[in-house]
Amino acid sequence: MSNPDKTTKPSRRAFLAGAGVAGAGLATGAFAQDSAITVQPWMQELGDGVDAAPYGMPSPYEKDVKRRTVEWLTADNASSINFTPLHNLDGIITPNGLCFERHHSGVARVDPAEHRLMIHGLVDKPLVFTMDDLKRFPRSNHVYFLECAANSGMEWRGSQLNGVQFTHGMIHNVMYTGIPLRLLLEQAGVKPSGKWILAEGADAAAMTRSIPMEKALDDCLVAFAMNGEALRAEQGYPLRLVVPGWEGNMWIKWLRRLEIGDEPWHHREETSKYTDLLADGTARRFTWEMDAKSVITSPSPQAPITHGPGRTVINGVAWSGRGTIPRVDVTVDGGMNWHEARMDGPSLDKSMHRFYFEFDWDGKPLLLQSRAHDSTGYVQPTKEALRKLRGLNSIYHNNGIQTWSVDADGRAENVEIS
Ligand SMILES: Nc1nc2c(c(=O)[nH]1)N[C@H]1C(S)=C(S)[C@@H](COP(=O)(O)O)O[C@H]1N2
Ligand SMILES: [Mo]
User: Which residues are in the Moybdenum cofactor oxidoreductase dimerisation domain (predicted)?
Assistant: First the structure.
């Protein structure tokens, strides 16, 4: 549509600048040249009434925002993984339907009326709780990230998967409602010799992990809700263990049994799996805490720059199993110059944090990296530094700095630089 008064009417650019919104190089279309500024079909008819979708779903235009698996990673979907689409998300909360899934024997279909939580072993009084019993305990709300220890594991020997969803998407961050595990243990009365807890799931895998008593008494939750509603079946409905800051494997879903013992059980998931084979042939075990990590979620291979040179927003997330993230640094030139990113949104203990870095892109190729600092003073290492320490055999706990190379057309690729 042409504008007869083009020379006299204020442009949208001038309007935004006048309102103090535009930065240098912010590109917007001229006010009247955008043919979408018209009376659209959706203004000419009534929309759906209430209750068209009693449980709301995203707009159909958002259909590409979804979890994705990588077919060749596992032999069967029942013992597999899919990934959170980090490149599509903002803020710090992962929507329930987009939380990555990791199951060892598929999603258990648990009837909450028939579900029980048992506490036994080195206790004064063995107990069995129904879901109704549990909901009579004082409850607590906390936002925590859950990261699988294998997140970025495929990247250990070099850049492999082309998308932040696949390199970093074994993480989600939700608000849990649950009962402090300490309260349930107090009810049962742990004997002085009770130093460890075996947590077991009600899925066909009967997933089991040993958890030290100090952690259980500190901040573990027996959660029944996420982001305000009941847990999703995929996330362990009706009950899951929340082990803040520690590797996802310990967060037993469909939680049915807590046995108190005096030493760890050395089950499969804490011996042959979730153990790191070091260069000298020895094994590093019980590496529970997740080290500080960050990644730029856009631009990234699945989220190229499509607007050309000028004002560009770098968007990313950071987290630490040991506290908060007071600072993230960003570089656009492969580490020659680092800039402090802008942290935005809530800064919560053992939760995901959001950072942004706004800059004027000159249209030349970029090498993007982010580097997290956590509240203990720990700084996210390079992948090279990690390999020097741990050799080439590791899979788990890869928190190395990620590099995206962006070409002049704005396309991004997973690369490594040294
Ligand atoms: N009962 C049970 N709990 C489980 C698992 C499982 O297969 N069964 N997988 C574990 C692993 S390896 C991870 S990383 C997290 C994944 O949690 P999510 O599916 O909510 O993302 O759950 C853990 N808890
Ligand atoms: Mo995991």
Answer: 285-402
